[in-house]
Amino acid sequence: CCARVMMRIQEIPQPVIARVHAVATAAGCQLVAACDLAVAADTATFATPGINIGFFCSTPAVPVVRSVGRKRAMEMLLTAAPIDARTACDWGLVNRVVPPSDLDAAVAALCEKIVASSADTIALGKRAFYEQVEQGLAGAYAVAGQTMTCNMLDPDAAEGIDAFLGKRLPQWRG
Questions:
Q1: What is the distance between the alpha carbons of residues 14 and 8, in angstroms, rounded to a whole number?
Q2: Is residue 89 over pLDDT 70?
Q3: Which of the chain's ends, N or C, has fewer CB atoms near its CB within 10 Å?
Q4: Confidence (pLDDT) at 134
Q5: What are the E-state strand segments in 26-125?
Q6: What span, in angstroms and rounded, lies between the C-alpha atoms of 99 and 132?
Q7: pLDDT digits over 50-83, tens only?
Q8: Sorting pLDDT into bands at 50, 70 and 90, what band is 2?
Q9: Quick one: how far is CA 7 from the chain centroid?
Q10: How far is Cα 114 from Cα 97, in angstroms, rounded to an integer?
């Protein structure tokens, strides 16, 4: 089921980056919105066009509204009008927009930056991010506080602090 795939993206400890080079509509737009990060070519477009054929894109709406907000999501869902990559970036659907020739390099740069960090810290942070984002304010702070406590006890946190103080690169466990 499509919903299981989209939820699994949030459940796995590794960040998932969408690389969009062309058209992402309906479930494709849903996939982009469900990913942790997204990089798009400036030629890419995004849409939830189901309304044009008698279907409301209700499942794509789940991650899209969480990325772009209610009013913009409803505009996409009710009008089926495609948005260009720059608009998608302005609205929060993608993180970066680059020329098509720079797409692979932009994704690689994000990957390099991420893999330079502690895998355990990334996994802990990603899990906490998605858990707290759906909470009310008090619940979100409870999740965040518990996460910070666990993070402080992780050996990678001690290594990171030691490396910072020693003016050297950290040596992560994983």
A1: 11
A2: yes
A3: N
A4: 86
A5: 37-41, 45-47, 83-84, 96-98
A6: 34
A7: 999 999 999 999 999 999 999 999 999 999 999 9
A8: confident
A9: 12
A10: 18
* Per-residue tokens: 119: 């895998």
Tell me what pLDDT residue 174 has. 65
Pairing of strands 37-41, 17-20: parallel
Q: Which two tokens stand for residue 110?
A: 């994000």
Q: Quick check: 49 pLDDT over 70? A: yes
Structure tokens at 31: 């996939």
Which of 38, 14, 34, 6 lies closest to 123, judged by CA? 14
Distances (CA, A) of 80 to 4, 29, 93, 168, 173: 25, 12, 16, 51, 47
Q: Write out the two tokens for 167.
A: 């003016």
* Structure-token pair, residue 107: 């994704």
Report the alpha-carbon angle 104-108-113, nearest 5.
155
Copy the structure tokens of residue 116.
Answer: 């330079």
